[in-house]
Design a protein that fits this description.
Elements (H helix, E strand, L loop, with lengths): L11 H12 L5 H15 L2 H16 L1
Length: about 60
């Protein structure tokens, strides 16, 4: 069984929100979670759909 791809825990923009939050000296998981949830609400799964489609194209090409 070979690994044919890796896909992260959340879309890249949401992951970047978490990375940025963790760099803050006053990091709050609750605040970061709220920001991510707001991002998801505004994005309406568009980024998720694009990333998943792109990922499936890559792994199906192999």
């Amino acid at each position: 069984m070979d690994v044919i791809g890796k896909w992260g825990p959340r879309p890249d923009p949401a992951q970047q929100i978490m990375r940025d939050a963790k760099l803050q000296s006053d990091y709050s998981h609750d605040e970061a979670s709220k920001k991510i949830q707001l991002w998801y609400a505004k994005d309406r799964t568009n980024t998720f759909q694009k990333e998943l489609t792109d990922f499936l194209k890559i792994i199906s090409a192999d």
